[in-house]
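Exercise: predict the structure of this protein bound to zinc ion.
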Amino acid sequence: MIAIIFLLHMLTYWGIGILLYIFRDKSAGPSLRSVSHVIKTVLLNQSTIPIMTYFASNYILLGETNSMRESINHLVIMLLVEEFGFYYTHRLFHTYFFYKYHKIHHEFYNPIGIAALYCHLSEFLLTNLLPLGMAPIVSSHLISPIDVNLLYFWIFCATLNTVLEHSNLAKNPIRRHYYHHVNGKKNYGVLGILDWMHGTLGLEAFAE
Ligand SMILES: [Zn+2]
Ligand SMILES: [Zn+2]
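Solution:
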């Protein structure tokens, strides 16, 4: 399971990320030199995934095939946990003391898909991996033991989403987080629920 999760993540991240890089909006975006720095940093962060997945797997309750209703309930709970974890840890990294770690991720005003996980290791573990791993732990204890295929689907969707969110394709339909790189005081979350509640939702992203 750990190897499949790692492979699924790597293939999705680099497969879609490289494809989006080839077809990126070339009027802006980082130089090749900074791209090689991005690749090295992201690979270093991703090298921690197998060991962190191993830790998380000790707490996830795995079970038989989930019914459609159970699967939907799992996905709803996992999305809410992800939203909660990502929003508040991300906002923490925007405070005066922690921003020195988060500013690495914000080096790109106009990011690219493969820079989605270009960040300090502390941010990668706390903001990216922790909510992602906590989501199936919480849902498998709250709803029912989770089908491993649903877990793979969760990892695939989360990886695809973060790459698309950072893509600088001119017609990128998912612009909320991309806009966060333009205006660092808006759109901290994933779903927009907590941004809406805290008044940090940046709908200007859709006005273009
Ligand atoms: Zn970002
Ligand atoms: Zn940020």
